[in-house]
Every structure is written in structure tokens, then in C-alpha cells.
Specification:
alpha/beta; elongated; about 20% helix
Length: about 625
């Protein structure tokens, strides 16, 4: 119950006045009389005029005070809050991504979000029940199926734990769409940010939590070995409104400090810090980079881990009947760990132990046949032959075409611009279902990639390194960056631990939270492979895929109880570390910020209080006249 006019309770101060009137005696005049015989039968009247004596009839003042109290309560307008009813289903989606661990007034944003949902489920009920979901679960997004049981809903909300994963909402809203089947159903998304919401066929009601916070964060960490030195490069961003002078410190996990540097970062900018450490000192050891005395609202991105390791040898076989100086120089400049072999079509008798085989397509016009390429990665340049799951032969396009579109969502195409590139002669074929286009012309895919049957394919549908066909070799620096990132894409598949979701550019065996990892270890069939998480939990690996990278820190892989390998997982996400409460994006589907549909019904009950007070007044009147 609540009161719509609580100021009326100041009138309670009148109750002591009523009590005092019963204690005070009457003021009467004195008269001289010859005898008091006539007053002996009425001694009680004389006693009533003595002030502050013990009340002999306490029932009447009690009823009068109660009557006055009920009058005051009725003036305060008492009201009952009855839960509102929605004639449909309600889905609450609680964001438990990394940014929800930001602290405000001693509480995290996740705690505030859970409190908001608890408040709303007490204010509204749904005829079809209420469902509780989280954005980043270890198992299913659904924490509680549709139910009207408040205890189950409260337990589901309580059991939602924080994740160190960056926000990715596609899967959770795809699941929600399977449960929304009526215009009366409601979806409420509780978060600190509403950017990049996926398009849905239903409106999304938003409940914002938190306020803009200040943060210093590590947004990039990369390790490269140059000769006998490890170059550790990091970028630190200052999201605060003031210039910050902080200390960056390299710490050996389980040991002492390796090196530290002071850096001044102006407000709203980022600075790079480079450490050069002797390779023998760090190789194979887990180290952490820490921001000392950051004094911000978000601790999660103040530390990052990495395990410096020597580059694994990358064996590349180039099959070509012509000199390819530009291509060979690019391949060799990728790194000191590259071992490049070249051969002609006539001399080629198998790929051997090559990790990547590059076949110059023009060789097919010589009449030579290509033996089975037994390698994990294959690059086709101007390939006229067959491809897996492609039945038709390519069509030769003799007229010039131009690049119209570049797939910038793929990691290979990051920081690469090939728009407007002219190709004088190219091929066109139907792309297989397992492929993905990287560069397209008005005639179709010009460069595309794909993975099938355990092999990776990169296909150039033109003579990429022939100056007579295009200016592709002279496009600097985009083409070198493109080739290096293609090699990184191939190289990622040769590592025993690799990401399924993205191309890694951090360092060997270093990943981001939320990555699904393929752990490909050559062990016996009955061997038990376990992954130990940073919090000590051990997960037995099933089918070589590990998806529980929801905590930052060092992970350890055990085979039959013995340590086999370690890798690190970090946040390193600039968007997640921004911590700013975003405005609703007008480009997304309908968003509803008005929560009136979650407000309880208000029913005033002052009339019943007045009726009860009148009953008390009648009782007081009857008692007064009886006595």
C-alpha cells in the first residue's frame, strides 16, 4: 500500500490535543454557600476538574483518537498497487556482457539490471507467463521458461552471472523470435547500450541501466619476434575527460616485474607503448600487461595476458612456369618463419609437407595436369579447372571489369581498399555454397575464399600478378596487407589451437573472449583432453571444440592429466570498454522506451477508511450517551 498525499500525516499532531483536553480541568468560578450538602452526591464532577489525574474512562478518548487517525489516513489518500496484466507473454533479456561489470555507487550495472527486472515482475503479470533470458550464457540463453511463479523467476534472475564477453545479440534475439507469436507479447531488453541491435519482426522495449563512466583500457596487444627480441606492442585508450599519467607494467605470471613505462594519455585519445624484451627470457612464459593506478570504473580491461612463443614454420609451395618476383618477395617478407619452395608444373609431383600450395592457373593452358594437392591451404590464381562442388567450367570475360564491392566484414579485408581496381580479363563461375566473396565486380566474385572437407581455398578469378591484366601488383599498400592477412588466415588453420570465428592478429595462442576454439591435438583416440579455465574450473573437451572462453586470463590444456599447452584470452574490445550509455539508434527496428505497460494498477481505498471512521464515531456517540 502507498499514499498519494503523504503530507497529510502532519495532521497527526492534532491527536495529542484531543488527549490533553481529557486531562485538563474545567475553569469554574467560586461561590460562598452555607452548605455543600447538595454537592455530596456529585463528587465525581469535582474530581474531573483536577488536572492530569489518571483517566477513569479511557475508552472515549481512545475512540476519538482513532477516529481522528482514520480521518488523517483518508486525507493521505491510501492506494493499493495491483500488478498490471498483459494479455500475452513477456520476455526479459538481461545483458550480462563485459561492460555490465562496470561499477557505479558500489554496484555493478548487472546488479542494477537484475534489480530492475525484479521490480518489474512484481509490478506486472502476463497471461502467457514471463521468460527470463541472458545474452551471454554458458549454456542456453533461456534462464527460465514461461512461468507465473515469482519464486522461479527470482531464482533465475539471481543465478545470472557476469560474462567477460563482448556484446553479440544476434543469437539471443534469433531465439526470442521463435517464442513471439502474438502482437500482445512484449520483449524487454535491459542493458547499458542499445547500439547494433539486430533487426527483428517485433518491437523491442528498452530499459536502460547505468550512467556514463570513466575508463582507461587496453585495446590492443601484439607480440612479434624480431631476431633475439620480443616486441610487445600495446595500445591504451583514455575514455576519461582528463589527461591521465599512468604506469604500464609487464609482469611475469607467478614471478616478478619484467619492465614498466610511464605514459601520459590525453583525454579521449590513445597511446602506443612498445616493450623490447630478450626472447630467451620470455619464450613460453605467461606474462601480463597491467595498468597501475588506473582508478577507473571498469577493472576488466586493465589487464591483458599473452604467451610469447616462436613462430611455427609456415611451408609454402609456389607452382608456376614463370617468374613471379613480386609474389615471391611478398611471401618471403611475411616473416622469418616462412619456408618458400618454387617449382614448375612439370616438376610438381605432390605438395609434400607444404602448409599452403599456390597454383598459377595459367599453367593449365600448357596442357599439364595437376596431381592431387595434399595440403591444407590452396590458392588458385586464374584457375580454369574444376573446384569442389562446382560443376560448370568458368566463363572467360574478355572485356574490362571494375571492382564494385569489398567485403569489409571479413578480417582479411580489414584496412584493405580495392574499390575501382580495373581488370582487363577475368573469369566468372558459380560460387560453391561453402564460399564467401571478398571482392566483387559487376560480373560476380573476383576474389573469394572458403573452407570445405578440412581444406581452405583462396581463389583469384583473374591473373592477379600479371601487370598486363591489372594494376593489382602495384596497389600499395593495400595488396601487401591483403596478402599478409591471407597468409595469416591460412596460418591460423595450422595451429593446434585456433579460432573458429575470426582471424587472429594478436599473437600465437592469444584469443578474445567469446571465441570458439578448435583444439586439434594429435592424441590417442581414448585420451581425455581437459581445459582448465582461469577460475580453476575444468572442462572436458568434446569433439575438439571449446566454446567457454567467457573469462579473461590464462587457459591450460591437459591431456590425460598432463599439461600440454596454454593460451590466453583477453577482452581487447574498444566498443565494450567505452562504457558510454548509447542513444537509441534510429537505424534499428522499432524501439520502445516507455515502460508504462509495466506499471502496476493504482486503486484508491480512502473511501473504506472514511466509512470505518464513521463507524467509530457512532460507537463513541453511543458510549458517551450510555454513560
Amino acid at each position: 500500500m502507498s499514499f498519494l498525499n503523504p503530507a497529510a500525516f502532519y495532521l497527526i499532531g492534532t491527536i495529542p490535543i484531543v488527549i490533553a483536553l481529557h486531562f485538563l480541568r474545567l475553569r469554574r468560578q467560586s461561590y460562598i454557600v452555607p452548605s455543600i450538602l447538595l454537592w455530596r452526591d456529585n463528587p465525581e464532577d469535582q474530581k474531573a476538574n483536577v488536572p492530569f489525574q489518571r483517566l477513569r474512562n479511557w475508552l472515549l478518548p481512545l475512540l476519538q483518537c482513532l477516529f481522528l487517525l482514520f480521518i488523517v489516513i483518508s486525507i493521505a489518500r491510501p492506494a493499493l498497487h495491483i500488478p498490471g496484466i498483459i494479455h500475452g507473454k513477456i520476455v526479459f533479456i538481461i545483458d550480462n556482457s563485459a561492460s555490465m561489470l562496470s561499477r557505479e555507487m558500489g554496484r555493478t550495472r548487472l546488479e542494477i539490471a537484475k534489480q530492475e527486472v525484479l521490480k518489474h515482475i512484481m509490478q506486472v503479470s502476463a497471461s502467457g507467463g514471463v521468460m527470463i533470458m541472458s545474452t551471454h550464457p554458458l549454456g542456453s540463453h533461456i534462464q527460465q521458461t514461461f512461468t507465473a511463479d515469482e519464486d522461479k523467476l527470482k531464482n533465475a534472475i539471481k543465478n545470472i552471472t557476469a560474462s567477460h564477453t563482448a556484446n553479440d545479440l544476434f543469437s539471443v534475439f534469433s531465439l526470442v523470435s521463435q517464442h513471439i507469436d502474438s502482437v500482445n507479447d512484449r520483449v524487454y531488453y535491459v542493458s547499458d547500450s542499445f547500439e547494433n541491435l539486430p533487426s527483428t519482426p517485433f518491437p523491442i522495449n528498452t530499459i536502460a541501466v547505468g550512467e556514463s563512466a570513466e575508463n582507461l583500457c587496453i585495446v590492443h596487444l601484439n607480440v612479434e619476434r624480431l631476431a633475439d627480441q620480443f616486441q610487445i606492442l600495446t595500445r591504451i585508450k583514455n575514455w576519461t575527460n582528463t589527461d591521465r599519467d599512468i604506469t604500464t607494467q609487464l609482469v611475469l605470471v607467478g614471478g616478478g616485474t619484467i619492465d614498466e613505462k610511464n605514459v601520459l594519455i590525453p583525454a579521449g585519445t590513445e597511446k602506443s607503448v612498445l616493450f623490447s624484451i630478450n626472447a630467451d627470457r620470455l619464450e613460453g612464459h605467461a606474462i601480463s600487461l597491467q595498468l597501475i593506478d588506473a582508478e577507473d570504473d571498469f577493472d576488466l580491461d586493465n589487464t591483458a595476458w599473452v604467451i610469447p612463443k616462436p613462430k611455427r614454420e609456415l611451408r609454402i609451395l609456389l607452382i608456376s612456369n614463370r617468374r613471379q618476383p613480386f609474389l615471391t618477395d611478398l611471401l618471403q617478407s611475411y616473416g622469418e618463419h616462412v619456408r618458400l619452395q618454387t617449382t614448375t608444373m612439370a616438376e610438381f609431383h605432390g605438395s609434400g609437407d607444404a602448409d599452403v600450395t599456390i597454383i598459377d592457373g595459367d599453367l593449365l593452358l600448357t596442357g599439364h595436369s595437376v596431381n592431387t594437392v595434399d595440403t591444407q591451404g590452396i590458392v588458385y590464381i586464374n584457375w580454369h579447372g574444376d573446384l569442389p562442388d562446382v560443376e560448370n567450367t568458368p566463363e572467360i570475360i574478355e572485356r574490362p571489369v571494375s571492382v564494385m564491392h569489398v567485403n569489409r566484414t571479413h578480417p582479411i579485408m580489414q584496412e584493405v581498399s580495392l574499390e575501382g581496381l580495373h581488370i582487363r580479363r577475368s573469369l566468372r563461375r558459380d560460387m560453391p555454397y561453402w564460399s564467401e566473396s571478398l571482392v566483387e565486380t559487376e560480373k560476380g566474385a573476383l576474389i573469394w575464399i572458403g573452407t570445405t572437407a578440412g581444406r581452405q581455398y583462396l581463389v583469384f578469378e583473374f591473373d592477379a600478378f600479371n601487370p598486363e591484366v591489372s594494376e593489382f601488383p602495384f596497389t600499395i599498400p593495400d595488396v601487401p596487407i591483403f596478402i599478409y592477412q591471407c597468409l595469416s588466415w591460412f596460418e591460423s588453420e595450422t595451429a593446434p589451437i585456433r579460432s573458429i570465428d575470426r582471424l587472429q592478429n594478436i599473437s600465437a595462442d592469444s584469443f578474445k573472449t567469446g571465441d570458439r576454439l578448435m583444439i586439434d591435438i594429435p592424441v590417442q583416440e581414448d585420451a581425455i583432453i581437459e581445459v582448465k579455465k582461469p577460475d580453476g574450473e575444468r572442462i572436458e573437451l568434446q569433439k575438439g571444440v571449446f566454446a567457454e572462453t567467457n573469462r579473461i586470463g590464462i587457459y591450460s590444456v591437459f591431456v590425460d592429466g598432463a599439461l600440454y599447452e596454454r593460451f590466453s584470452v583477453n577482452l581487447l574490445n574498444e566498443d565494450e570498454s567505452a562504457l558510454n550509455i548509447s542513444n537509441l539508434s534510429p537505424d534499428t527496428n522499432e524501439l520502445v522506451t516507455d515502460n508504462t505497460s509495466l506499471q502496476p494498477l493504482v486503486h484508491e481505498v480512502w473511501q473504506w477508511v472514511v466509512l470505518f471512521g464513521v463507524c467509530l464515531l457512532l460507537c463513541e456517540w453511543w458510549l458517551y450517551h450510555r454513560h
